[in-house]
Amino acid sequence: MTVAKTTDKPTPADIITNTIIDKLEAGVRPCVKPWRPGLGGRPLRATGEPYKGINCFWLWLCAESAGYNSRTWMTYKQAQALGGQVREGERSQIAIFYKSYRATVASVVTGDTADEMRRVLRSYAVFNCDQIDGLSPDFYPSPVNAVPPADQLSPRAQTFIDALPATLHIRGDRAFYDRTADSITMPAIELFATRAYWASTLAHEAGHWTGHPDRLDRSFGKRFGDEAYAFEELCAEMTSALLGADLGLPTSHLDDHAAYIGSWLTVLRKDSRAIMTAAAKAEAAAGYLLRATGLAASAERQDQIREAA
Question: Which domain holds residue 158?
């Protein structure tokens, strides 16, 4: 295995990045098909709040690897407070957060001091509800089909397509985003195996669309193979996976190009925090698209309900 960063004790970023590197080296893309029946949607906290950013992808990967059906993760103390007990011998996984603190910094030129806010990455241990006995039946869902039948789209997916404000051209046999023209080109639906695969590909290209300077202003890279290009493709794929979880779309159709995997490995080996940055940018892109299509309102209402409870 190629280690992204060498330290006496691996950081949370190292643990996550090195696991993903192992998967990529084995030819498995962790962003692809992150849910099985029963795992539809994002991983959830004990409160029912969805995880965001890298925690979403990481806990998807952990659940898939272990064969868990539950979407919910919680700490040992949370399980006890809810009347549950983690089974003996079960192994926890990490979830991460950033802790902010104020530091006094002295100028090397003038010697003057100033306060500035800094953030440091921290982790805590969580268990999947499949590792815990005695919880409410609500935490142990029966397996369900997360993705609609192949020839149908969920109402949310159809709304996403109809309300997407991007300029969309249906022509040719390639799907791509043209940054100069600020438009998305998609082949006809008939050229795809299913409507859902067409919609998933559109979600990927819409992820690129959010990076335009007038929107989220990401660097796209100048050519295939450079690091900025590889990073942008990783952001778009992660955006598509997040949207897929929310809209009920598959991502397993995405091509497993060895060239893409190789370029992503280069980026991840160079910087153990690159995957976290990509996940954060994908979260921002997915949120932008959900707001732009009017689909974020339902999630915001659920947050308000939780806050009022």
Answer: 147-309
